[in-house]
Amino acid sequence: MVSAIENGRVQLHFAVFSFNRAEFLVNCLRSLEQCAPHIPVTVFDDNSTDAATIAVLADIRQRASQNSLLHLVQPSVQSADPGAGQSKHGGLYHNMQLALDSLPDDTLMCTLQDDMQLVRPLTDEDVAAIQAYFAVAPNRAFLHQAFIKASELRRSQVEYDAADDTYMLRRARRSAGCFYSDICIAHVGRLRAVRWKFLPRESLNEKQAHEKFATMAYLANPFVAWLPSAPAWRGKQRTLALRLGEKYQRCGYYPFLSMTDEESLAFCARERTVLPVAEQCLRLDSSVALKQPWVYHPLQGSRWLKWLNSAELKLRR
Question: In this predicted model, what pLDDT tens digit does every residue of 54-87 receive, in sequence order?
């Protein structure tokens, strides 16, 4: 990988984790090329199997051979970790560890999944603010870079920190999101200093981060968002529950319209009482009107579908 170090300061490196979602991966990379063209990107494929995604990966491999800022790691689940693809997230955490181990200490690893998109230009001021956040205190290792989901606000208390220009989301019984998130900007050197190993569940990584680092802040001016109603996998499998949930939730491909430079400036200059909530700040590039708050997973809000999904996965083992 190309080092993301400039002038002795920690620099960003995007790590995109993907599996069997061709058009989503294309959209994610297109948004990176448009909004952050000078920042290195590595795509970590989780042994995709569908023909469309394999074709996209072949194109990425060809482009990477001519572009020093683009890299592809495939396949990423190695025989040294035979259980890596068995969790509900497939090989995500194996691949996140692979990304962490392959980056230099003076790097900020900005993790993305293929159903995400950069929605506004990432400016020098944005990067400087991120660098400044980590420079303030040595126990800061994670920073959240995505727009807040409206559904998160129902059970969360949001506090604004004017000193850092960040928000804190606090919620009792929250399994993740206070100290850690799979979507984050992570300081590679600080994780390596405590011998960090990604564990196979987000809640376990939340507990680990709570023990080792300060609370994770949320950028006041995020630049990344999840696409709503995206199709999903569980344990790299398509269960009946997922298929039913996708039909009920009208899952499909709903990319965002990127902010113009003027819109991005206005967004960043807004009053901080206006929270960066995706449903309120972003526009879909689609004629389909999705109900709000947006749904981000086919099983979201349905206990019986979650039960059916778990039962089917157990029967398949």
Answer: 999 999 999 999 999 999 998 644 444 444 444 5
Residue 135, classified by CB atoms within 10 Å of its CB into exposed (0-12), middle (13-18) or buried (19+), is: exposed
Distances (CA, A) of 290 to 28, 261, 296, 312: 20, 26, 11, 29
Model confidence over 95-152: pLDDT tens digits? 999 999 999 999 999 999 999 999 999 999 999 999 999 999 999 999 999 999 999 8
Contact present, 92 and 18 (Cβ < 8 Å): no
Report whether the peptide linkage leading into residue 255 is cis, meaning its omega lies within 30 degrees of zero: no
Residue pair 185/110 in contact by the 8 Å Cβ criterion:
yes
Question: Tokens in use for 297?
Answer: 């997973």
How far apart CA 235 and CA 216 sit, in angstroms, is 27
d(CA 69, CA 11): 13
Give the separation between CA 303 and CA 241, rounded to whole angstroms.
11
Give the angle 241-292-311 at the CA atoms, nearest 5°: 15
d(CA 196, CA 265): 37
User: How is residue 170 written in tokens?
Assistant: 């606090």
Contact of 264 with 121, CB cutoff 8 Å: yes
How much is the CA Rg of the chain, to the nearest whole Å? 19
Q: Write out pLDDT tens, residues 137-190.
A: 999 999 999 999 999 888 789 999 999 999 999 876 677 899 999 999 999 999
Q: How confident is the model at residue 16 (pLDDT cuts 50, 70, 90)?
A: very high
